[in-house]
Prior knowledge:
The protein is mostly helical and 252 residues long. The chain has helices at 2-11, 19-31, 35-47, 55-66, 71-83, 91-102, 107-119, 127-138, 143-155, 163-174, 179-191, 199-211, 217-225, 230-242. The protein is 68% helix and 0% strand.
Amino acid sequence: GQYNLGGMYKFGEGTTKDLNEALKWFQLAADQGSAVAQIEIGFAYEYGVGFDKNLSQASKWYELAATQGESFAQRNLGNLYYKGDGVSKDFITAAKWYKLAANQGNADAQYNLAWLYENGDGLEQDFVLAAKWYQLAAVQGNANAQMKLGWMHNNGIGVDKDLEAAVKWSWLSANQNNQYAQFNLALMHETGAGTPENLILAYALYDLSAKQGNEYAPTNQALLKARLNAKQIAAALKISKSWKIGIPFPLE
């Protein structure tokens, strides 16, 4: 009841929205062992929402919820250990919590676990296992995992080299506005790797990636510009300016 009452105050359901009142009830529920309330308290401390920001307190409350099996808390606790926020930086402990959350299907934890396997942080480097966990996160729509899986297929790292699969996963990520997937796809369309050459689309993708701060996209875009005429450049910029997240790019 206390947790539900906190939720009503948090979202203004049936009562006036009041964050302080919500946290009061969440705290009472958390003190009695409610894992979901402990997550709310951990989140409030982690981001300084209603409480003064206190990462040590955030880790305490997340751990209480994580040991009860809450995947969201396990993932967040893994993040704190990975970054060394509120706890000593510890990749091995981060991996432990990510693995627990990942095995429950938490897509962000699956991505983070894959990253640890890819880079050998806290776990023995294993590209096959990295690809496995990226795949699991990617099918759940995680844009970073889709980008990474595309990159692995493109380079034959941890999986068989498969340019069509590389294009497929890169598009799923790029359509979520992932700058790295947009850059990788631009390169594929510029060179005709795994997809028909399309210089206009390549230019548009470089443009979108560059606008998000990708460090390599401006150079590639400038080099490609020299190969296009004014009409082609205008067509490319029309695509990049009109595109919105979630709308598939025109492929012709």
